[in-house]
Each structure stands twice: as C-alpha cells, then as structure tokens.
C-alpha cells in the first residue's frame, strides 16, 4: 500500500507533531512569535541602533488599512497599512547621535521605543568562527570583566530555521548595551571588530549576530536566489512540499536519496539496506551495545573515520502496538542521519546536539518483526549514533514503549561520496537559515555585512565561489544594492604537509579571494596566520577584529590604507626564475623567521605536479627558484589546510593564500 494512503487520515496530527533536533523547526512555524510587539517590528525596541546618514526604513504591523504615524528625532512619516496589516515607512536620514525615542501610533494605539541611538549597524553572520563567543576567545576573563560601553549595542538572532521566509523571529530578541553580562555569549569576532573600529569611527555601533556553527552557505541563501542557479531545483521542490505536507515531502526526499545511493559506482543491484527484505551479509558486524562514537569502538578502520555507517536493527511488536500511532525516538546522531522504518523514509536531521523524534503514521508498523535502518554521516571528529542503548525506543500513543534492545548491526560505507542533505535541515539545508534568521530582520538598515563561513563547504570550493556571489547579491537585494561585504578568508587548520598536496580548504580560500576581488564594495580579511593547527576554532578573535576593522576603514569609509596586507598582482618568468609582484604592502616584504620565504610552490598544468620553491623577498617582489621552474604554469602560496606561510610586510600583516597563472613562455619572451 502506498505510504500516502497510510498517512492521509493522520496528516493534521503529523503537521503538528513532526519533531526535529533541537534548534530545528516545524514546517508550519508561526509567522508572529513576537507577541509583545504592538505596531513596530521587534527589531525596533528599547536600546536599538538605527543606521545613520541613510533614509531610515521603519516597518511593522497594524490593523488592515489603518493610518500609521511615525516620529523620530524631530522627523515624521505617515503610511497606511495594507490589507494584511503590514506597513513600511521611510524617515529622513539622521546623523549619528541620540538617545532618541521612536514613536508609532495607529488605531488609538501608541508604542514608544526609548534609548535609541543613531550610528552604524553591522550584520555579522556565518558559522562557528563567527558564532564563537567572547568567553571562548583569548584572555576571556579580562575581556569580559572590562567590557562596558553604552555605545556598542548587541542583538543576537535566535538559531532557528524555517521552510519558508518568516516575518518575525520564532523567539524573542533583545537589544542590549555592552557590559560583562551581555558580552560574554556574544560573537567575539563581531564585538572586537566594533570595539576596534570605534577608535577611528567615533559613532554608536549596533551589532546583529546571526550565526550557526556547522552551517553551509546554501542555508543562508534565499530560495529564489538558489532556484536561479538551477542547481537545486529538485531539493527546492521538496522543501516547498515540506512547508505544507512534511510526511509526503519525506517520501519525496527518500526517492531522491535512493537515486543518489543507486548512482554510486560501488553499489550493486539489490544493495538497499533499508529494505525490510534485505539480508545483511558478512560485511555487517555487531556494534557495541552502548553505541556512542564509532572512533571509540576499538575498530581500526573506524579509529579516525569520517564518512558513512549503516545501522540496522529489528524490533518485534505485538498487534496492539503495531496498530497505534507511534514515534521513533533516537539518541543524537553525529552529525546527520537518514532513517527508514520498514523500508519507508521517516526522517532526516542535521546536528549532534539532541535526539531525533520521527512521527510514524498508523499502518506503517506491523505485528512481528519491524526493521529500523539509520544511515549516519560524520565529517568531523566523533561520529555515530549516541548511546545508551535504552535511548533508542518506539513510543506508542497509549504510553507504552518498545525499546530497541537488540544489538545493532553496522556496515562501513567506503569512499567520500557523501549523500545529499535534506533541504529542510537547519544548518545544512537550503534557504532554511535565511528564512528563519535573515528574513525576520526585514529590511532593517545596515552599514555593512561581515561574513565568516566556509569550513562546511570545503568539499565544493568551485561551487562555493559562485554561491558566495549569489549570497552577496541576494543579501544586497534585501539590505541595499551597495551594502559592503567583508569576507574572512578561512584561517589555517590542520598540520602542515611535507610535500605540496591538493587542499579543499586552500581552494575555498582562493574562491573567497576571487569573489572579494571582483567587487569594489567587498573586502577580504586574511586570517591564515592566526589559525590553530589543532583547533578549527582559533581563539585569537581580537586580531581578527582588528583586521576586520582595518578592512572596513578602507572598503566602507574610503580610508587610503591597505585593507589586508600584501596582495599578489602578477607573476612572470625572469630567466630561470619566477617573480611575483605584490601591492598594498606597507614597506618592504619580508620572510619572518628566516632569510627565505616559506610557502611558495611552482606547479605544472595538472593538479598534482607542484614543488616547493626557494623564495626571496625584495621590495614588493618575491623571486622563486626551483628545478624546472621554466616549465611552471602556476604559482601557489599557502596552499594547504594548515600551511606554514611567512611572507609579511612592515606592518606585520600577512600575504594571504593565492594561486596565479603564469603567462606562456612565448608571451614572456615577446614581452621582453
């Protein structure tokens, strides 16, 4: 029988009952969780900062067709709410200052918002290195104790995803002044940036932090913008279905996942571990009863394994149990699961923070043996289904349970061809974080956008280049066509290699560099030297804040200073050597710690043949020598996940990672 027939009678219940991991969302997320707001959108509240020197957009909700009057700092506007009650007005620009009171009135209701400053507003977004809190940064105790500024205001966007764009936040938000209590859990990079910038741009600063650890760029980009790429049409169709019919969408996603699995080159006909008729072969082994991280099972192949494991278990049910509504409860899965019951896809969630609960329609379970199969993907550190064993259970409507008490079987999936992510997953989905964390900002005026993200996309660096341009233009369509974007280039992470090698991290850094270079209102912040070989979350966010502020002074405020250290401009052959010329350096280039510069490579036309080069800095050039240097077609610098790179200028700013093509020998000869 088709699953749609099984669940039709229970759709209403399911729409209310589908539960994902902590921080996830239901498809029918409310469009108005900010119930305390009367007329003004929740962004406009006590202690807010409004953007200076721009017409100020103010918006909210009133009665349908009501006249709304706005006043602020001696300026007034009036507008009529539309048929749905939404309204948006524009106040004339104001200079930096305050505090002021913002007043909105309509239909006999007046709302006053007090202690509002006018200054520069910044949106700080990305994944864990933007989320990383002040208490996790260097010298955190002293930083927190010394934090006190009424002229730096903070707002943290709640971590919520949604299948469709939301008008307001799913949970309350609050503007606060900076003090020891409020700064502790705020983004360190964002806070240190504003603190440094205020030394030269002496105006109030409003900081909006919208970040989520482990998030992919696709989750931060709107559905229409992703649709325009043509890359995700099937997934976006499923997401649209999920917004109104989540269980049917799960079946659609199961079909897409199945097509992906069968298209793998190492999958034989009939290899469908989720099928209730599938018979595990000798590749399947018995997992430890308490499960937990597979790296700790004592299995050599899993000691440092990042990839996929299949888990499979059977549970025997009575006729009374099988006929009831039920929920499959699983312990947390690190970091993504795809789950089937009796061959039917029932759920997929990203995130290791909490357990999974998947609603099962009546009729899916049966008397006797029932098969539960979970595919778990892990890409970083510990992975697998958590324990203890009694955390995995079927719960029935009458309150009874059926523990998944038998031993789980598992099978390792070789290779790194990892599965697609369900489009509704929060941090790993499509448009989900845009819908739940960016769209609720409305068109609140901002001075600029800070973006620190990419670690979760290092497996697709070429696509990331296009997606970063898409995100930049997408956000500008909301916040303003010329809104500056400051991109933090990924910091170093991982041990240096003895020989040149391919690196997805390096390729993604090059994508970030190229995107920043092709836009006058964008800037790149180099962080390669303030990374940590052992920690993907380097704690030196103070120096990162200084570099972000420096980039802002150049890109946003037009100061004539180098935005981020030496920048490669050209590479050419010179007899038996290659010469790379730099610009934007302060003073002469130097190799820190030695007479020569470490980190340069000369490469051939193919991906692999690269060799480290002897490099000498002189003025604004670096001369490279290596055997067969005349055959090189490319120059690379700092090309590894966690490279050693020693090229700096006199202001102690590093040259960032890059790759440049060399002209053909004939063109070099002609130019001479």
Please give a structural write-up.
By secondary structure, this protein is an alpha+beta fold. The protein has three domains: 3-16 and 246-413, Sandwich (Jelly Rolls); 119-221 and 429-555, 3-Layer(aba) Sandwich (Rossmann fold); 567-671. 20% of the residues lie in helices and 29% in strands. The strands form eight sheets. Strands 1, 3, 4, 6, 7, 8, 9, 10, 23, 24 and 25 form an eleven-stranded mixed beta sheet that branches. β24, α13 and β25 (522-525) form a beta-alpha-beta unit. α6 (188-197) crosses α14 (541-555) and α12 packs parallel to α13. The relative contact order is 0.12. Residues 1-37 have low confidence and may be disordered.
Task: Provide a short characterization of the protein structure.
By secondary structure, the chain is of the alpha+beta class.
């Amino acid at each position: 029988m088709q699953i749609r027939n099984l669940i039709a009678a229970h759709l209403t219940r399911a729409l209310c009952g589908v539960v994902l991991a902590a921080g996830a969302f239901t498809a029918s997320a409310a469009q108005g969780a900010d119930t305390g707001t009367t007329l003004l959108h929740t962004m406009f509240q006590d202690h807010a900062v409004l953007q200076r020197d721009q017409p100020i957009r103010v918006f909210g909700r009133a009665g349908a067709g009501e006249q709304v009057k706005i006043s602020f700092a001696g300026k007034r506007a009036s507008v009529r709410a539309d048929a749905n009650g939404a309204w948006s007005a524009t106040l004339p620009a104001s200079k930096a200052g305050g505090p002021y009171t913002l007043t909105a009135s309509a239909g006999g209701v007046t709302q006053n918002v007090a202690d509002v400053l006018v200054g520069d507003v910044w949106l700080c977004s990305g994944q864990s290195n933007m989320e990383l809190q002040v208490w996790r940064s260097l010298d955190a105790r002293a930083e927190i104790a010394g934090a006190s500024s009424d002229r730096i205001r903070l707002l943290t966007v709640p971590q919520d995803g949604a299948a469709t764009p939301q008008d307001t936040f799913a949970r309350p938000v609050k503007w606060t002044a900076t003090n020891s209590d409020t700064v502790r859990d705020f983004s360190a990079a964002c806070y240190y940036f504003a603190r440094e910038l205020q030394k030269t741009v002496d105006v109030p600063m409003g900081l909006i932090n919208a970040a989520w650890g482990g998030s992919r760029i696709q989750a931060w980009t709107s559905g229409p913008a992703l649709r325009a790429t043509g890359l995700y049409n099937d997934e976006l169709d499923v997401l649209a279905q999920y917004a109104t019919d989540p269980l049917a969408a799960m079946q659609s996603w199961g079909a897409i996942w199945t097509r992906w699995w069968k298209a793998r080159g190492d999958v034989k006909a009939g290899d469908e571990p989720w099928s209730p008729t599938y018979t595990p072969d000798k590749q399947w082994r018995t997992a430890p009863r308490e499960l937990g991280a597979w790296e700790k099972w004592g299995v050599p192949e899993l000691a440092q394994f990042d990839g996929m494991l299949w888990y499979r278990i059977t549970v025997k049910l009575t006729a009374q149990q099988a006929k009831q509504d039920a929920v499959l409860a699983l312990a947390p899965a690190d970091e993504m699961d795809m789950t089937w019951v009796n061959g039917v896809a029932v759920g997929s969630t990203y995130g290791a923070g909490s357990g999974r609960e998947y609603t099962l329609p009546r009729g899916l379970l049966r008397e006797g043996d029932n098969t539960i199969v979970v595919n778990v993907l892990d890409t970083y550190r510990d992975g697998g289904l958590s324990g203890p064993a009694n955390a995995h259970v079927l719960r029935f409507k009458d309150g009874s349970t059926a523990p998944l008490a038998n031993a789980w079987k598992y099978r390792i999936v070789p290779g790194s061809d990892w599965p697609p992510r369900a489009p509704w997953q929060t941090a790993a989905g499509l448009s989900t974080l845009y819908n739940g964390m960016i769209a609720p900002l409305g068109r609140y005026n901002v001075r600029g956008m800070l973006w620190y993200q990419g670690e979760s996309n290092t497996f697709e660096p070429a696509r990331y280049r296009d997606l970063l341009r898409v995100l930049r233009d997408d956000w500008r369509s909301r916040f303003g066509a010329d809104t500056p974007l400051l991109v933090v280039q990924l910091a170093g992470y991982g041990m240096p290699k003895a020989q040149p090698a391919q690196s997805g991290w390096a390729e993604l850094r090059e994508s970030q560099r190229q995107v920043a270079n092709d836009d006058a209102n964008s800037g790149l912040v180099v962080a390669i030297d303030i990374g940590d070989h052992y920690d993907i979350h380097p704690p030196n966010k103070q120096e990162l804040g200084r570099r972000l502020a420096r980039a802002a002074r150049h890109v946003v405020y037009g100061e004539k200073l180098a935005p981020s250290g030496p920048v490669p401009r050209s590479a050419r052959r010179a007899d038996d050597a290659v010469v790379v010329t730099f610009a934007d350096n302060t003073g002469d280039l130097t190799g820190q710690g030695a007479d020569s510069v470490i980190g340069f490579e000369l490469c051939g036309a193919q991906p692999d043949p690269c060799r480290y080069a002897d490099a000498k800095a002189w003025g604004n050039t670096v001369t490279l020598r290596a055997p067969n240097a005349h055959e090189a077609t490319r120059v690379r610098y700092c090309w590894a996940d966690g490279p050693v790179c020693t090229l700096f200028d006199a202001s102690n700013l590093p040259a960032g990672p890059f790759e440049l093509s060399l002209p053909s020998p004939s063109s070099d000869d002609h130019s001479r």
